[in-house]
Structure formats: structure tokens, C-alpha cells
Design brief:
Blueprint (H helix, E strand, L loop, with lengths): L3 H17 L5 H41 L6 H4 L9 H7 L2 H10 L7 H12 L2 H8 L5 H16 L3 H10 L7 H14 L16 H16 L1 H10 L11 H16 L5 H15 L2 H20 L14
Helix pairs in contact: 1-2, 1-11, 2-6, 2-10, 8-10, 11-13, 12-13, 13-14, 13-15, 14-15
């Protein structure tokens, strides 16, 4: 599922566009937010389809070699362990994946070189040789092999990343996270499951409500949050603070005030990490100091009130 850090990142990106653009339509921006969240989930499915395509390509290579004018003994009697991988068979037959492919009409057919490159890299690898020659041929080894393909052929492939950037502006920042989602899905899978267990887009309805509320309330509380930041930055003029830093602090304050179930320490740490990602190390230190002071003062003023098990009086 798409975790809350990714949801915060998506909200930040669309909020940035919302405040920077001259056309501030809340409804359109909210639609854009959910569109880019959906694109992350689509990437999860699309990489699964790419893996299937690689195995389809492997089957074609076997048939081509069998039908050569002078096939060798190895061509006529190939090792079929790769194409008989049980996890791939399960993924192929999973109804939700079939439905996604049919409904979205998505295909990697326009990128045949990518499939070929991945296949060629796999068959040249040590992990491929180990898999094909291992004395034990069971479901766990099939799972481990697919996991190694993801780790070795996708996470480090500049060509793969470049194609994703070309296909969608939303995917470049999501690849690493989505690949981790896939690895987690594979680890959770068991031979007893008749279908591959896919992760849901959201962990639960709370996460969907979280990103909606964070987005809408950050916009609604924009002026109020700027005053709060101004009151806690006596030695700084607001126009001297970078826009990215201001927006991250506004989001953090919104989250701390509007979401009583989330500990302030969690919110603080999350936005410090986002500052490292979108701003600078110096900014993350600055934001840490301002938010820490702000949260202390807002708690004293009873503006931040936490509720729930273990949160009262945190």
C-alpha cells in the first residue's frame, strides 16, 4: 500500500503547484492529487506486467531456438525452469492483474528493447545460473528468483528509469518505493494462495482521509499558519524563508493541529525528512528548530491537543 510518507510527498507536490499557479481551483487540485496517487499504484501493476513480458520473451526465445535450421541438442531440450516459474504463473493468472491489463489497455509493446535488455541481463547473471542449476526446485526458490530480478535488474537500471520518466512525469520519484512494495508483496506470498496477493492502494480508509484532510486543511489554514510561523520566527522575516520551507512547516502545523491521533514527534520527524528531500540539510535543521518551538507553544496554548491511547499529554 502507499504509505503516509508517500502521501505527504504527493500532497506537498500538489500544494506547491496550487500555491505557485495563478489558477487556484481547489477541486481541480484535489483531483490532481488523487490522480498522481493513482499513478503510483498503476506503476505497481505495470512493473508486474513488465516482469510477465520478460518471461513471455523467454518463451519466445526457446521457440525460436527450437525452430532453427540446425537446432542443437540443448535447443531441442531446453531447461524450462525459468519459463515454468510458479510465481510468474500465479501472477499471470491473478484476476485483478488480468482486469487491470484489460481495463487500462496498458502494454510494454512500445518498449521491446527494455524487455530484451532485462532478459539478456538476467541470463548473464550469476543468480540466474544458480537458479537454473540448483538441485532444489521449489516455490520458495521461484519467489527468491523473482525478488532477485527486481533487486538486480530494476533498482539499478538507468535505462528503465529513463523510460519511466518518458512514460509519466509522476513515476520518476516513485520507482524505488514501488519496487519495495513489490518485494514486500512477494515476501508475503505463499504457495497456498491460489492468486498473487496484491497490496491495496491505501492501508485503510484512514489513510485516504489523512491525505484529503492534510491537503484541504493546509489550504484552508494558509493565512493562519503563516501567522503562527511568524510568531515563532522573531529573528526572521517571512519573505526571507524559502517557499518550500514555509510550505513544509505549514503542512506540519496543519497535521499537528488537525490530526489529534498523530503524535507531534511523528509529524516533526516526517517533515524534517521531507525537507532533506525537497530542500537542504540546512533547511531541515532550521525547520526542526522552528517546528519544535512552535509545537511546544501551541500545546501550551491548547491549540494542539492530542487524543487517543498513549497520546494525551504527550
Amino acid at each position: 500500500m502507499i504509505n503516509r510518507r508517500i502521501l505527504r510527498i504527493k500532497a506537498f507536490q500538489i500544494l506547491y503547484a496550487y500555491f505557485k499557479s495563478g489558477n487556484n481551483s481547489l477541486n481541480n487540485s484535489r483531483k490532481e492529487l488523487h490522480f498522481c496517487i493513482n499513478k503510483t499504484y498503476e506503476l505497481y501493476f505495470n512493473i508486474l506486467l513488465l516482469i510477465i513480458d520478460v518471461f513471455d520473451y523467454a518463451e519466445k526465445i526457446i521457440e525460436i531456438r527450437k525452430n532453427k535450421n540446425l537446432p542443437s541438442k540443448e535447443d531441442l531440450n531446453p531447461n524450462l525452469r525459468l519459463v515454468n516459474n510458479r510465481l510468474i504463473k500465479k501472477i499471470r493468472e491473478t484476476k485483478d492483474i488480468i482486469s487491470y491489463k484489460n481495463n487500462n489497455k496498458f502494454s510494454w509493446a512500445n518498449y521491446p528493447e527494455l524487455t530484451k535488455k532485462i532478459y539478456n541481463s538476467i541470463v548473464k547473471s550469476d543468480y540466474y545460473n544458480a537458479y537454473m542449476t540448483k538441485s532444489v526446485n521449489d516455490y520458495n526458490n521461484d519467489k527468491l528468483f523473482i525478488k532477485k530480478i527486481i533487486e538486480n535488474e530494476f533498482t539499478t537500471s538507468k535505462y528503465f528509469y529513463d523510460i519511466l520518466d518518458e512514460m509519466s512525469i509522476y513515476w520518476g520519484d516513485d520507482v524505488e518505493y514501488v519496487l519495495n512494495m513489490l518485494i514486500k508483496s512477494i515476501k508475503k506470498d505463499t504457495e497456498n494462495n491460489t492468486e498473487f496477493i496484491l497490496m491495496d492502494k491505501f492501508k485503510n480508509i484512514d489513510d485516504k482521509n489523512f491525505v484529503d484532510k492534510l491537503f484541504i486543511k493546509t489550504i484552508a489554514n494558509h493565512d493562519k499558519n503563516k501567522k503562527i510561523i511568524d510568531a515563532n520566527t522573531k529573528n526572521w522575516e517571512l519573505d526571507r524563508i524559502a517557499f518550500v520551507d514555509m510550505l513544509l512547516m505549514e503542512m506540519a502545523i496543519t497535521e499537528a493541529i488537525e490530526m489529534p491521533e498523530i503524535p507531534t514527534k511523528v509529524s516533526l520527524n516526517e517533515y524534517i525528512e521531507l525537507a532533506k528531500l525537497f530542500s537542504s540539510k540546512k533547511s531541515s535543521v532550521f525547520i526542526n528548530g522552528i517546528l519544535d518551538k512552535t509545537f511546544i507553544n501551541l500545546k501550551k496554548e491548547k491549540i494542539i491537543i492530542k487524543k487517543g491511547s498513549g497520546l494525551i499529554g504527550e
